[in-house]
Amino acid sequence: MIEIFKYHYSKVADKVRESIDELRPYLEKTQKITLSFSFWLALVIVAVLAIMWLGKSTWKYLTNRSTFIVSPVTFSFDTPDWATDRLINEIKNIPGLKREYNIFEKDLTKKIAEVYENNPLIYRVYYIERELPNMINLKLELGRPIAIVKRKGKEYLVDKDCVRLPDEFYEYPERDENPVYVICSRLSRVPEYGEKWEDRSIEGGVNLLNYLKYNGIDKLLEIAAIDVSNVARRLKSGKSDIILYTENGTMIKWGCPPSCERPNELSNYEKLQNLLSVAKEEGITLANMEYVDVRWKVPLGKRISVQ
After folding, report:
1. Cβ atoms of residues 223 and 275 within 8 Å
2. Closest C-alpha to 252, from 215, 280, 279, 232
3. Beta carbons within 10 angstroms of residue 171's beta carbon
4. CA 207, CA 295: separation in Å to the nearest integer?
5. Membrane spanning segments where (predicted)?
6. For the segment 255-296, what is each residue's pLDDT rounded down to a tens digit?
7. Quick one: 51 exposed, middle or buried, by C-beta within 10 A (0-12, 13-18, 19+)?
8. What percentage of the chain has pLDDT greater than the value 70?
9. Helix or strand run (H / E) with residue 150
10. Residue 61, exposed/middle/buried by CB under 10 A (0-12, 13-18, 19+)?
11. Please, which residues bridge with residue 12 across strands?
12. CA 291 – CA 148 distance, rounded (Å)
């Protein structure tokens, strides 16, 4: 039995050896092909890496040239007449801007936009675009003075959001226009430049001026001042919270601003219609009127007495 097993084992082993001998040429050929492929693959990878490195180095060399450097100091702006040279210089040197930028710098426009958006002198950044080789096109909306707050003999410039503005940065009043004053005798903290004036009465006066400007009434009736000293003082004397004054001295008793939420108080729209109805009868400048009271359903008024 053992002899038979040895015999069969020997025959199988011989066949395996014969098969290996037959396959050896193919295995050797496959091994050569694999080695050759690996060599060429490694050569291609090295070549690609070398090209990438060379390209990156060349790109870095070319883009780092002074031709592609832009500096905020060299920015030029097409500005309105009411912006002074000091304001333009301030915009060029806003804290947070770098002295120089490479035009190819990653997220360049985003970085510059974030600096401008966080500055109180600038309301909005409409767009910032690169222009080769070393130009940046940008459109900004600047804070614009709307009135002068007059308080305890001192004057402060404010914008439409009641934010205090530096006087030296703006030409106010603008050319061929007269200033509008918001008069307030109440005590309140004077804000720093770029801060909002946290005073209910002053904010009410500025908001009313915005409303009048939106409807073109400030110039139509030549509004010169808005006195807000009596806002929300709960007066029982019948005095108006807000009083407007025209250039010719006519007094317009406007009443309480919408923020007071006083019962039965007319809306700004209703008061404006009352004012326009009186102006239609008495003349647009109200020059013959001592005062006009628009707080009631039917407006009241008093003509200047002629001696």
Report:
1. no
2. 279
3. 13
4. 17
5. 33-55
6. 998 888 788 899 999 999 999 999 999 999 899 999 999 999
7. exposed
8. 81
9. strand 145-151
10. exposed
11. none
12. 23
